[in-house]
Amino acid sequence: MGDQATSMMVQKPDSGGPGDGKRSSVVTRTRMSKPTDPRLRLVILVLVLLVLPVAYVAAINVALQPPGLAFQTGWTDPTFAGWTVRTGAGANASLNVSNGVLSVTATSSVTPQQFVAADSPNLTSVDLTRYHFLVVSIRAPAYHVAARIGIWTGIDRPKLVLVKTYPDTGWHTEVIDLRFFGLSFDRPLQMIELGWLGVETPAPAGSKVEFRDLSLAREVGEPS
Questions:
Q1: Secondary structure string (H, E, C) spanning the chain
Q2: 58 and 143 in one domain?
Q3: What is the rounded CA–CA span in Å between residue 54 and residue 63?
Q4: Where is average pLDDT lowest: 45-49, 59-63, 110-114, 122-126?
Q5: How high is the pLDDT of residue 205?
Q6: In a domain, 11, yes or no
Q7: Distance CA 146, CA 150 (A)
Q8: Are residues 89 and 131 in the same domain?
Q9: pLDDT digits (tens, 9 = 90+) for 70-103
Q10: pLDDT score recorded for residue 223
Q11: Residue 186: which residues within 8 A CB-CB, separation 6 or more?
Q12: Contact between 105 and 92 (Cβ < 8 Å)
């Protein structure tokens, strides 16, 4: 009888009886329904909020890469020879050219909406119907000045094609499609004006804007 009792005790844990099955099922369900640690959920939420926007922006940038633009130059002025000063009433400026860079510098305070500029000589040889992109690099390291570019074809007043601030020390290249500004392309180009105007607070004497790599061009592949 002692042997039989020992045999039953050994077999009981592995008997797989109905009671054991129920207990196992209850234990499993209890473990599966146990809530996640709130701290862990917070960490996961923060990671999702940080990673997903970055991944989304990266995917958009990859999918929407802008096509590269290439231009054929029809006219350029690397020396700025013959350019003259023009200013608004009450303002004064000087011009300086060094290493292909044209500097337009105020010699007096320039109040908001006053301007100083450099006017090009006569440009009647330029064909704007073919070379209608104006390309130029600009440096204007002050928040109180705005680069200002005007074009004149001999009708009415010069058309402003750019008024923009660049409050840092870097060069910024602008590509301006002149077809959007109501210019009369059936008349020869008379003048390009590179300058700047005061914005918000008066610009003190010595303030300047610089220009380089000025050209008129057309996009490669455009019909002649």
A1: CHHHHHHHHHHHHHCCCHHHHHHHHHHHHHHHCCCCCHHHHHHHHHHHHHHHHHHHHHHHHHHCCCCCCCEEEEEECCCCCCCEEEECCCCCEEEEEECCEEEEEECCCECECCEEEEECCCCCCCCCCCCCEEEEEEECCCCCEEEEEEEECCCCCCEEEEEECCCCCCCEEEEEEHHHCCCCCCCCCCEEEEEEEECCCCECCCCEEEEEEEEEEEECCCCC
A2: no
A3: 14
A4: 59-63
A5: 94
A6: no
A7: 13
A8: yes
A9: 888 999 999 999 999 999 988 999 999 999 999 9
A10: 67
A11: 129
A12: no
Residue 55's domain spans which residues? 18-63
Tokens at residue 131, please? Answer: 């070379």
pTM: 0.68
* Rounded Cα distance, 133 and 174, in Å: 10
pLDDT (tens digit, 9 = 90+) per residue, 22-59?
444 444 444 444 556 776 766 666 555 554 444 444 44
Total count of domains within the chain: 2
Position 29 scores a pLDDT of 43
Task: State yes or no: pLDDT of 160 exceeds 70.
Answer: yes
Whole-number average pLDDT of the chain? 77
- Cα 166 from Cα 201, distance rounded (Å): 15
Dmax (CA) of the chain:
125
Most confident of 1-5, 86-90, 122-126, 180-184: 86-90
Spatial distance between the Cα atoms of 138 and 194, rounded to a whole number of angstroms: 10
142, 166: one domain: yes
